[in-house]
Amino acid sequence: MLRQFLHISFLLFFMNSFSQQVLDSTSVAYATEKNKHEIQEEEKELNFKNFFFEALQQKAIGNFDKAISSLENCQNIKPNDVAVNFEFGKNYFQLEKYIEAESYTKKALELDSENLDILVLLKEIYNKQSNFKDALEVQKKIAEKKPGNQLDLVILYIKNNKIDDARQLLIELEKNGTLSANLIPFKESLLKGTVLTPTSVPQGKSVEEQSIEELKITYQSNKNFTVFKELLIKLNEKKKYTELETESKEGLELFPAQPLVYLMYATSLNQSKQYEKALSILQNGIDYVIDDGNLEADFYDQMSLSYKGMGQNVNASKYLNKAVSMRQKKS
Fold first, then answer.
1. The pTM is what?
2. Containing domain of residue 95, as a range?
């Protein structure tokens, strides 16, 4: 009887040990597989970030084809990423491949329908295709989100031959006290019964001779850097820093490799005491300055102002001296 009991006890102990080993083995296998999956996901995320950063770098220096190639690698990892589709749209826009730009921008908008920057890009794509009807519909959505920017809406009403709508909008803005200076030429023209088109305002004038209002109108009809540069310079000369901030910030999207845009944006930020942000913009923009000592000195001047505003007087003096030294070399 005792021998039978011991035999049964041994069998139970053996079976329990075996079962525990099986469970332990299964747990280890599960944990290993889980860790392997997590490592793979981390590698994918890291690769995505590297490819995306490379795309941004290539776009910044005007290598739009290379940027697109890096974005394609991003897309293989994340097929429906908003930022990737948006960047595709921006790069194809720069290459003047508007059909592709429209396709990707619409995909980005499907994923983030409330994104103002995506709406602005889509409107610009439609404008380049002379598709003013769809551009107007997009601009209406933009105006709802950003009521202070009505110039494009007035221009697109005119381009769609909706003169009464343009006139009514201007009247409402004047009643509300929100009629900006750049809309006054349109108001005066439309209320007199004539139509002021974006290209007719500065007719016969060189870019240098045009007023700020005329330059804005010219620029809206043709996103040309020569016009945009003159606009920024005159806004700065007239100390219209709020407008300068708005224009230069938007300009960075279209002209990401133009150092003057960075300088003007940082100048406006310094004037509104956003010193840390201004310094960051200057540090990014100065990399695009090539063989232009005066422009480089202007960057150092603004860096000095940023450091002074942040209470870093040693650095403020350092960069002020660099500006003076740079100008002495050029003289």
1. 0.52
2. 35-115
